[in-house]
Amino acid sequence: MSTAQELDAIGIERLREAGSLKWSAFPEAIGAFVAEMDFPTAPAVADAVKNAVDAGLTGYLPAAVRTRMAEATARWQRDRYGWEVPPERIRPVPDVLTALRTTIDFFTAAGSAIVLPTPAYMPFVTIPAMHGRETVEVPMLVEGGRHVYDLDGIDRALADGGGLLILCNPYNPLGRVFEREELEAVAEIVERRGARVFSDEIHAPLVFAPHRHVPYASISPAAAAHTITAASASKAWNLPGLKAAQVILTNDADVEMWARPEVAWAEHGTANLGVVAATAAFDEGRDWLEETLAYLDGNRRLLGDLLAEHIPAMGYRAPEGTYIAWLDARDLGIDGSPADFFRTRAGVAMTDGIACGAAGEGYLRFILATPRPIIEQAVRQMADALRDHAAR
Amino acid sequence: MSTAQELDAIGIERLREAGSLKWSAFPEAIGAFVAEMDFPTAPAVADAVKNAVDAGLTGYLPAAVRTRMAEATARWQRDRYGWEVPPERIRPVPDVLTALRTTIDFFTAAGSAIVLPTPAYMPFVTIPAMHGRETVEVPMLVEGGRHVYDLDGIDRALADGGGLLILCNPYNPLGRVFEREELEAVAEIVERRGARVFSDEIHAPLVFAPHRHVPYASISPAAAAHTITAASASKAWNLPGLKAAQVILTNDADVEMWARPEVAWAEHGTANLGVVAATAAFDEGRDWLEETLAYLDGNRRLLGDLLAEHIPAMGYRAPEGTYIAWLDARDLGIDGSPADFFRTRAGVAMTDGIACGAAGEGYLRFILATPRPIIEQAVRQMADALRDHAAR
């Protein structure tokens, strides 16, 4: 049986029984709202975790285990993106959001605003306020049908007191994989304004050919000097609950700052089994990832075909990376939240775009990392609900 | 083979190879400096974690899995300590220190000092400064050979701007298990001064008869109203690297405060497999714990016998709870740090008491949760080093 057939065969009943967040939060609806995969992680990753348990690796995180993850991350960055990073500059953190919070607290000018291209990953919209910081949303522009940075808007926001620009590449929720020239244009502005960049690259392993991930900090010495990069195996190998990610430091001053105990505290919550899983994913999970990417590639095309056939008024452009689909529901004739409409009327639970910032109003965030028959069922249910709605 | 024989048979070579933090940080020395056990966790716990991996529980933490840990914690608190806590008031956090940091930030008067009986668990000494708070150390008193709270000192510190009293019961590093009357005396002072208590009860499962753990918040409605309790399976079942602990809320105002997103953020880093492990520990790890406690009981007595025979000048009182021995090295004729002396001259790595606060100067913190032959070897090596030292 091929991988695609195996994944196709994972039914809703089995997913409900396994009880992931996606399939338990809304027991009446198809779960498509949280960016996790409905497929088991790579066997090599699962085996590594189970072996670590058998070896008794449940105590405090040993240095050698940390180091192995840093080395595996460095190999991955080098082999996959051509970026050479010294392992000693790769630090363990529990998750990307902890990396962001640490960046805001210790690597930006006190009180400076956080500049956020939108629509954005939902917590990016709300976290700055927890640190007493203003979030300045800079909506993305559309050019030739694809989303691009509003460079003038970013420039103005940084000139107007912005201290940190949050980048997300590959872009959650828009699915863009930025080209080197686009990143260079951003870096020029950030450098001119003396600001910092937090580059969330958690989706980097999830890029569809011919697109290629370019690590933002790798594009120039200037970008390396103003950037803190967050990486993780958690999206591509479906490990968010295991709590391990990597911060990549790319200048001496940041390394020195990270050495301070109150900053290095960010490492404290990193879980052993997450570290072991990430190490195995980067080193031994590569073939599995290729198969999974091929399946996801089919999913992003299938969704396009299904929408064109059943809900042609729904706007959709297949993501270049990530397993997140950004759906434009503005022309569907729905009053109020389209997510509420489809959850209650169609039994499909998605994230409302408004949670991604004001620019997301009228949009939906649909997670593609699910068996294809479930995508078909979701689109069918959505189309039926729209038909019922129109018939009233 | 009995459990004791199995545990006795775990040799240093095997521990080095397994590579725990304790046995890898100082490759030349016996590891006795970090509070983790050299024994594998309960088979029921290891099985639960491996089954969760097989079931694909690597995505975001599902509500049902959180709830199961809360229910298991409630059963444990009820069955073990006679304390009835509603499961919905038990919240997941990655670790006790995250609970403390959240308590300081959101449950104490802004800018108020943190009152800390000392010697204390090392991070308690340093964390308040990370929050811009002063730490007021209140050294414990000795009465009839055992450590007791300096009630007048605590009273003065709270009167003098202290907003939070950190309790640790069973007491790391002193090994005290406080009696109800002692806790009542503390509660009366805290209540009179309008302060809060953070009660670290991470060692509660590790109590030797005839001592009994009394949850601080359980002693009176007043104590419940001013306390935030932190519990965990991580010490007793050796799971610190799996990142799960429990905050027990015992008043409506705290429940309301915890519901705020910036407060509930404390839950964010809790790792699925830690939650699964804690659930299994509290529910299915009880027999294993009894056997382990019996072994540790032997260890604390053995250490006393060995010290009396080989290093009679070393002060030691067997802990009533925890697997931490607090050794008084002040009469050994050592200049400078006794931990440095024993690590470099005896090949035994312990924590220097000074890291536990000024009151710890001249003391050592030795972790007892190790095979008995290793305790014997450690004491022998320490006695030899002292003999060499005296002969110079």
Please report the first level of CATH classification, the CATH class of the largest domain in chain A.
Answer: Alpha Beta
Strand content of chain A: 15-25%
The amount of helix of chain A comes to 40-55%
- Secondary-structure element sequence of chain A? HHHEHHEHEHEEEHEHEHEEHHHHEHEEEH
Radius of gyration of chain A: 21 Å
Q: How many independent structural domains of chain A?
A: 2
Under the CATH scheme, the architecture of the largest domain in chain A is 3-Layer(aba) Sandwich
- Within the largest sheet of chain A, what's the order of strands? 2-10-9-8-7-3-4
Global geometry of chain A: globular
Task: Extract low-pLDDT stretches of chain A.
Answer: none
Structural class of chain A: alpha/beta
Query: How many β-strand stretches of chain A?
Result: 14
Largest sheet of chain A: 7 strands, mixed
Q: Can you tell me the CATH superfamily of the largest domain in chain A? A: Type I PLP-dependent aspartate aminotransferase-like (Major domain)
Largest contact between protein chains? A-B, 52 and 52 residues
